[in-house]
Structures are given as structure tokens and as C-alpha cells.
Amino acid sequence: MTNLLIIMADQLRQDIVQHAAYPFVRLPNLDRLRGDGVTLGECFCQYPICCPSRASFITGKYPHQLGMWNNQCRFPAEERDLGRHLAEHGYDAVAFGKTHAMAPGFRSVRYDIRATMGSDNHGYNLTPGREVGVFDGDEEDDCDFMAVRQFADYLASGREGRPFAAFLGIYAPHPPLFPPRRFAGLYSPDTIKLPTAPDWEAATKPAIQQVSRQRWTCLDETVQRRVVATYLGMATLVDECVGRALAALNEHGLLEETLVIFTSDHGEQLGEHRMIGKFHQVYEGSLRVPLILRLPDGRWAGAERNQLVEMCDVFPTLCELLQVPLPDAPHTPAGSSFARALAGEAEHRSCVHAMLESAQMVRTREWKLVQYTDGGGELYDLTDDPREWVNRYGDPSCEAVRVELTAEILRHLLRHPCGRFNAGGNGFFG
Q: Which residue from 82, 322, 391, 414 has the highest number of Cβ atoms inside 10 Å of its Cβ?
């Protein structure tokens, strides 16, 4: 049986991994992984915040099916995640590092993340002079290096001869931006070209986005550059974690017996639309995630695929690649396997779906519609306006597109109805 290693970073932008943004960022191990595997450049998460996205990834279902409306919602105890499913088919399912408790079927190896963060603020610290910093402890005590070391120790233990399904959660580059010193000053703020946006853009956007926008615009440009530079340093920290994990597999003769997948739970605005973080919006920077698969037999090595895929498609794809049957109803994933797309044989989806607590989104290759529960919305022509600056929701010339995409949202919700009420929700179903 083939082993499985899932490496999931937190809040890592897809365009940084693929060198489309800030191409000077050093990612030698991810570059090597891409050369040995297949890269899917059009993968989208189902909700650009941690817990709903991870719950969707690990079950293959949409967040509204799980009642995962926000980060305060608990993972449904009755759901069967990938770890539990693989354990029932002979795998030792074990998790290291950050999971947000969204992978209960994986036996979790614990570590004290609070002592290894460098800051007691687990988000962006907007205290003047404390926006970025340095983890002053021993570098090897960084929480991410600790998680990788625990994974390596697990491989050395022998595992009683069973195949493993390992989930390795990397905290970086999620804030706080307090990496070890070697990564904190890796890139000079002077090299950072900040994203731009027209002055009129904010007036066309939903009012709820002003919160995230104010968190960025309250920083002066010097601080903004330091924030971006430190985030990029933490992306290189992620890369080193990937290298260490692959080296551990290779040391124990397991690399060519293991299916390796690298991804992130969601992206980050990093100054785009004059925002920081990922809340209250579904722009490309927050929705698009890196996705790389390295197969043991070397299939599709170095290939890049541009088919539209969703994070909830990963569960059924892994089942097909590992030759494990899908779970029976009611645990069958809503996503579908993109194994044929990996081979370059077929288009996978005509559109992808995502959501916020009070909105549903559909995105084709040409258009994106966000429909809010208060009756407002956003509509973008991605061909002419890939930066999503011009909201054409109220444009009469786009009415036919808006109506058709609204109908697609309704079809999506009918195909995948809400399966669980959660008191945390106040959106389409709550």
C-alpha cells in the first residue's frame, strides 16, 4: 500500500509558491517538489478562513453541508474525515503540527504551540512597533520545525509495518509574523513593491470589507513593506519544513513509496485591495491555494495543469490514487476526483464555488459572482479585470451573466443542501 503525506501550510498565497508574485522568494524545496510532481495552478478553497476550509478539505464536503460557518464552529462529531476513513482501510492516520482540530480522524501528536510562537497574539499584531518581530528562542524550538521533527521521529519508530497517512500542519506564514531570526530579515523591505488599487475602488465594495481595509491602511508604507517582507521570509520557512519532511522520507527509504501533497488552507490579501488578512471577502488572493502532488511512480513529473479544481475534490482524488473506496452515504464527499485532470485528459469543472458566512460565490474562468444575503453583490469580469477592481454587479449590460451565475449558485445549493444546523451561523441557512 502507498503511504500518504499531506503538508498543509496556513495562509500561504498560491502566486508566491508559483513565483508569479515576488519571484525572488527562495523556495528551492517546493521548486524541486514541483519538478518531481504535478502542479495544479487553478485550485480554490471553499471558504477563505481556517476552520471551515480545513473541515471542507478533510471531508470533501462544502462548509454549509457541515455547518461550518466560521472559526467558532466545531467539527461535526458524526462526520467521517479522511483520517478516519483511511484508518478503516489499514492506514495509521497520524497528525503533526497545526490542524485547528479539523482532522479528528488523525491521531494527533501534541506540542506546545504557545511556547514556540514568539508572540502571544495569534493574528496580526497592529500594536505600533510590534507588527513584526523575531522568535528569540532556539531556531529548532520553532513550532513548525518541532512538528517536522516529530514527523521524522515517527518515521524512525517503524510504525509496526503499517502504511501511514500523515498530516503535517505548518503554522507559517499565518501571523504572528515572528519567525526565527534567520527568516525574519531574509528579504529587505526595500525590495518590496506594494500592491496598488485605484482610489475609487473601496466605494464600490461591501461595507463589511472596510474592517480589513482599515487594518492595512492604518499602517504607514514602511511598516507595510516590513510586513510583506517578513511574510515572504516565513514562506521560505515553510519551504525549509517541506525540505526537511522530504529528507526524512528519503532517509528511511520511504520517499518512493509515498504520495506527497502540498497545499494551504487559504491565501492572504497581503495589501491587495488595501487589505490584510483574509476575512470578509473572496478575492483571488484569499481563495487560490497552492496544490502540488508527487506520486511515487513519478507520473506527470514536472507537469502543470490549469483545470479548475476545488479543495473538496482532494479527498476523492486521494481515494482514487490510493485505490481506497469512497465512503458510503451519508459520508460520501461532495467533491469529485480530478485524477483524469492530473493526467491532462479532461477538463474537471466549469466553475468553482466558495462561501462566506453571509454570501455564496461562483467563479468560472471568465466571471466571478458573489451574492450576499442582504441583496447586494459583486460581479467581476476576470478577463478584462483580473485584479477585481471594477464591481459590475449593478451594470445593466451584465444582467444576463448575473442572472445565470445566480442560478448556478441556487443549483449548487440544491445539489448540496445544508446538512447540519449550527448556532454559529447567520448566513444562507442559519
A: 82
Indicate the pairing of strand 367-372 with strand 377-381: antiparallel
Q: How many CB atoms lie within 10 A of CB 140?
A: 9
214: closest CA among 124, 299, 110?
A: 124
Angle at 397 between CA 392 and CA 398, to 5 degrees: 50
Of 375, 381, 343, the C-alpha closest to 363 is: 381
Q: So what's the pLDDT on residue 423?
A: 44
Q: What CATH number was assigned to the domain covering residues 3-349?
A: 3.40.720.10
- Average confidence (pLDDT) over 271-295: 97
DSSP state letters, 293-346: EE-TT-TTTTEEE---EEGGGHHHHHHHHHT-PPPPTTS--SS---HHHHTT-S
Indicate the residue type of 103: A
Residue 39 to residue 142: CA distance in whole angstroms: 29
CA 29/CA 85 separation, integer angstroms: 30
Q: What is d(CA 4, CA 351) in angstroms, rounded to the nearest whole number?
A: 28
Examine the pLDDT at 237 and tell me if it is beyond 70.
Answer: yes
Alpha carbon of residue 403 to chain centroid: 30
* CA atoms of 115 and 32, how far apart (whole Å): 32
- Mean pLDDT throughout 112-127? 67
Q: Where are the alpha helices (DSSP H) in 118-161?
A: 143-156
Q: Which residue has the cell 483574509?
A: 278
Instruction: Using the predicted structure, report yes or no on whether residue 109 has a pLDDT greater than 70.
Output: yes
Instruction: State the pTM of this model.
Output: 0.96
Q: What's the one-letter identity of residue 416? A: H
Report the chain's mean pLDDT, rounded to a whole number.
93
Q: With a cut of 50, say whether residue 151 has pLDDT above it.
A: yes
User: Which residue, 390, 388, 128, is CA-closest to 272?
Assistant: 388
